[in-house]
Amino acid sequence: GAYFSFNASFMAPRKSAVREAFRQIPAERILIETDAPAMSPPAEHWHASAGEPMAHNHPINLICAYQALAEIRRTTPDDLASEIWHNHRQFIGCAFVT
Fold this sequence. Notes:
The chain has 3 helices and 2 strands. By secondary structure, it is mainly alpha-helical. The chain has a two-stranded parallel sheet. It is globular and about 35 Å long. The two termini are 25 Å apart.
């Protein structure tokens, strides 16, 4: 019943084992986050709208997290977003109107 949350800091070169784990986790058990203001993505994954890469993360880097995880899981960001939305609804246990 556990969920696993991905953030773009896992794109750091030393996090290859974490990326491999997220490739193998069942799709229905994945969530996504920025973990802002901590755990910034590597500079090459920093979202341009967040300004210059710096020590503090920015919520817009959620876009980077979706792009990175979609690449890892060999899917599109849009398909991943649909899966994550469903997982979020299941995790929170709320009935959202769509």
